[in-house]
Specification:
Layout: H1 15-18, H2 21-34, E1 42-45, H3 49-61, E2 66-69, H4 73-81, E3 86-88, H5 95-106, E4 112-115, H6 120-128, E5 135-138, H7 152-158, E6 161-164, H8 172-180, E7 190-195, H9 199-207, E8 213-217
Parallel strand pairs: 1-2, 1-4, 2-3, 4-5, 5-6, 7-8
Amino acid sequence: APARQVLVMPPDLAPEAAAMMEPVSCCVHGLDLADITAGDPTVILGAGSIGLILLQLARHAGAAPVVVVEPVAAKRDLALTLGADAVVDPSGLSSGELRDRVNDATDGGPQIVIEASGHEAAARAALFLPRRGGTVLFFGVQQPDLELSLRPFDVYHNEVTIRGAFTNPLTDSRARQMLATGRVQVLSLISHRFSIQDIAAGLDAVRAGLAVKAMVLP
């Protein structure tokens, strides 16, 4: 690689952490677009590695409280360990019940809603959770042909902002700083490690939803 395109990592940063710089840089860009102001109640839908990185960045941006919605108990526990103020299990809840739980946890509804799971149910939930004047950020990768029902009157009347975050434009250096200073913890997100010979098993673990983050090591 050309030297001008290389970011030198601190010598004491674990290689596994350095390998997480790309997703962290994408999340930094997403937080820029979410435009969190200190004290904004924030809900993150999904506690995979991306949701848990966004959780940490949201806390450092001043979001309060930060609530994570996640059906897997182990991932909810990890979210609490990493600083979530509350977690909600959406399993078996109607849309109205989920909104009530989120409203209770955020004292009236979130100002910021971040969809970080890539699941259809979370995408549908994201649109009806924000309070008036709130922002919905679609960060998770949804199926390209997924269509959601949206009433423009609700967007108009509630002054809701809907945004998307796709890539990491020029945020690598900022992600490096978050990792180098320990502001974002990523080693605890690596739930599965595989040799390069077992890469197929690693992909299977991800597809099955078993992994928070699966890493292939040389």
